[in-house]
Amino acid sequence: MPCLYFNHDGDRCEYDLRWRGHHPDGKKACRQSNETSETATSTFSRGNQMTSKTDYPRIASRAEWLVARKQLLTMEKEETRQRDAISAERRRLPMVEVEHNYVFEGSQGKQTLVDLFEGRPQLLVYHFMFDPSWDAGCKSCSHFMDNSAGSIVHLAARDTSFAVVSRAPIEKIELFKKRMAWTFPWVFVICQ
Question: What is the pTM of this model?
Answer without folding.
Answer: 0.57
